[in-house]
Design goal:
The protein is α+β, with helices and mostly antiparallel strands. The chain folds into 2 domains: 1-77, no CATH class; 79-133, no CATH class. It has 7 helices and 3 strands; from the N terminus they run H-H-H-H-H-E-E-E-H-H. Strands 1-2-3 form a 3-stranded antiparallel beta sheet. The protein is globular.
Length: 145
């Protein structure tokens, strides 16, 4: 579970602690509330995981939305969710997300993003892919003098 918590912690911290998440994910409240329900589900499966408990406590104290949804006691193991992303250049991107769990190893999940054929998202993805990899150091650093 350790690597799963580490990887998931990065996403969920960004989701609740970085204001850009609310700008980028158009249906943020739907997506974020589902993330809280999934964390509650994982917390029930791994009650002795101290790192998960620390992460939950951190998010409860830092995010009023997380705390409110956590206190609702909703549990979810959603296998399907929609995600709409506001891209600064190509506009709104819409994805269906499916989560599949291996029956032989429930700690392993396969996450599949899908798009509707001929949709604006399907037309935008090849354009985005043609731009190549992003140089994250350059993207986050101020330009040289």
């Amino acid at each position: 579970l350790g690597a799963e918590i580490d990887a998931g912690a990065v996403l969920v911290r960004w989701l609740f602690l970085d204001p850009r998440a609310r700008e980028r994910i158009v249906n943020w409240s739907d997506y974020a509330s589902a993330a809280v329900g999934a964390m509650r589900y994982e917390g029930g499966r791994h009650v002795a995981d101290a790192r998960l408990t620390v992460l939950i406590d951190e998010l409860r104290s830092a995010s009023a939305d997380f705390a409110r949804w956590w206190d609702d006691h909703g549990v979810a193991d959603r296998t399907s969710v929609d995600k709409k992303i506001a891209h600064p250049v190509v506009g709104c991107l819409s994805f269906g997300i499916e989560s599949l769990v291996s029956p032989h190893d429930p700690e392993q999940r396969l996450i599949i993003y899908t798009v509707e054929p001929e949709s604006s998202t399907a037309r935008a993805l090849p354009v985005l892919a043609s731009w190549g990899p992003v140089d994250t150091e350059f993207a986050t650093s101020p330009p040289p003098d």
